[in-house]
Amino acid sequence: MSTPASQPASHSTAHRPHPAAALKRRWPTALAVAVVALNVIASGSQDVADAVGGFGETLPLLPLIYLVVNQIGKPQATWPVLGAGMVAVFVLPFQDVIAPSTVLVALALALLAWGAVRGTPHGRATFGLQAMGALLFCGLALAGLAVDPDLGRYLVAAGWFFHGVWDFVHLRLDKVVSRTFAEWCGVIDVCVAAQLLLLV
To answer: Do 12 and 167 contact (CB within 8 A), yes or no?
Structure first.
């Protein structure tokens, strides 16, 4: 019995993803773009020093999330850890005693010491990689905050950009943090780097 001529066409369209389905799969990217767009609108024509200060103070949170989730050993904890981190970043500026970046870096160092003494669920190799990342990104943040804002913007932007690369590598490897977070954070990080270099 012959197959109707229309069958191959309907079969090919059945395997073509619907735009809504594609958007549903890429919701972390859509959410990241929306967050960055709202931030750009809210910040307006931001002063370079303010932008470097704000993004530089927040940058240490990124490797800190990886360290916390790595020590917990459960990727599904990533989003709750992010929520707690965002609360901390929002609350810390209300006290004038210690800079938020100093608190975040101190927490990262405490986690590194804990991991070195007590061990880590993912093994020494993964812990060592996370330790190097934390030292790199926290170092770029502190250096960017310590120098002139015109130079600091490049250091802080480098930190955000390379952490975006870090996210996409973890997304590809599917390790440590959840895949949805790695995609979301990667897009935000690259967009923030571009904002620092092009829009501020």
So the answer is: no
Phi-psi region of 17 (alpha: psi -120 to 50; beta: other; left: phi over 0): beta
- Rounded CA-CA distance 51/46 in Å is 6
Dihedral class, residue 73 (left if φ above 0, else alpha if ψ from -120 to 50, else beta): left
Q: By C-alpha distance, which of 182, 104, 172, 115 is closest to 141?
A: 104
Predicted TM-score (pTM) of the model is 0.85
Digit-coded pLDDT (tens) for 8-17: 544 444 566 6
Which amino acid would we find at residue 7? Q
What is the distance between the alpha carbons of residues 43 and 126, in angstroms, rounded to a whole number?
Answer: 37
Distance CA(9)–CA(15), nearest Å, equals 10
What's the distance, Cα to Cα, between the start and end of the chain in Å?
68
Residue for token digits 């927490």? Answer: 107
Tokens at 76, concatenated: 């599904």
- Per-residue model confidence as pLDDT tens digits over 95-140: 888 888 999 999 999 999 999 998 889 889 999 999 999 999 999 9
Q: What mean pLDDT comes out for the span 169-179?
A: 95
Q: Rounded distance, CA 103 to CA 11, Å? A: 57
What confidence score (pLDDT) does residue 32 get?
95
The distance from CA 75 to its chain's CA centroid, rounded to whole angstroms, is: 14
CB 63 within 8 A of CB 132: no
Q: What is the dihedral sign for C-alpha 177, 178, 182, 188?
A: negative
